[in-house]
Backbone:
């Protein structure tokens, strides 16, 4: 990476950190964001987490329709337990998604060829319903280019998790029923709404991707695996609830501005 690219990455990381801490957005030319490479995005992501000086509590991961695997750390201050109440600084643009997250009890044991499904399953302590709060520190908001989203911790505002179900192995995630409610009204419900369906396969891909980057899944970390209901938007004063068959419900309130 050139010195110019390194400088640009460092400046962008500093601006993102300030946005995290101050609740404002970073105005950068769209062409600059579009020019970010994956390597630059991950460098910025790492620097943001380092400069925030908050431990990593987990990850968000997604496999996109074109096969691209994207992920980002979730810092401790952004991992909340249901029922939660969050300020405008945290919910920002107010994006909400219903997801399933997995808690790891230990670091997966790697085989000769990397991680296999069985090794991931053995390392999982349980699964839970979750609401991801989707925000952006860029002024381009939800129209931000992919690598710029990755640099910005994959647009994570917060993750609100419910009670852990330790009998998760009996659940068919590819046909799981989900419901998203806002102020008591169902805004979306789906059966098998996750684009990947095979969540263990996704976690296996993710663990191997981390390994290639010299990173590991650690005991106690939560990994959320993407939306069953798509992205919806809630507003100041709204009460959001997520329900999945076989899981305790999850709720979060957006504090009135």
Residues:
């Amino acid at each position: 990476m050139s010195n110019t690219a390194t400088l640009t990455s460092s400046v962008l990381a500093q601006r993102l950190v300030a946005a995290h801490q101050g609740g404002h957005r970073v105005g950068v030319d769209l062409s600059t964001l579009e020019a970010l490479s994956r390597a630059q995005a991950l460098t910025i992501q790492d620097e943001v987490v380092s400069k925030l000086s908050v431990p990593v509590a987990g990850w968000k991961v997604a496999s996109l329709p074109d096969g691209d695997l994207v992920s980002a750390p979730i810092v401790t201050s952004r991992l909340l337990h249901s029922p939660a109440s969050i300020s405008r600084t945290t919910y920002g643009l107010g994006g909400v998604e219903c997801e399933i997250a997995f808690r790891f009890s230990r670091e997966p044991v790697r085989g000769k060829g990397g991680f296999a499904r069985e090794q991931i399953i053995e390392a999982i302590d349980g699964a839970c319903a979750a609401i991801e709060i989707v925000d952006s520190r860029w002024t381009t908001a939800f129209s931000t280019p992919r690598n710029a989203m990755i640099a910005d911790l994959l647009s994570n505002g917060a993750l609100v998790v419910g009670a852990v179900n330790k009998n998760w192995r009996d659940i068919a995630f590819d046909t799981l029923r989900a419901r998203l409610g806002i102020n008591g009204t169902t805004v979306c419900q789906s059966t098998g709404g996750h684009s990947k369906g095979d969540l263990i396969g996704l976690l296996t891909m993710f663990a191997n991707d981390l390994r290639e980057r010299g990173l590991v899944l650690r005991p106690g970390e939560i990994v959320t695996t993407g939306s069953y209901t798509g992205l919806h938007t809630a507003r100041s004063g709204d009460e959001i609830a997520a329900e999945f068959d076989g899981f305790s419900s999850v709720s979060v309130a957006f504090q009135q501005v």
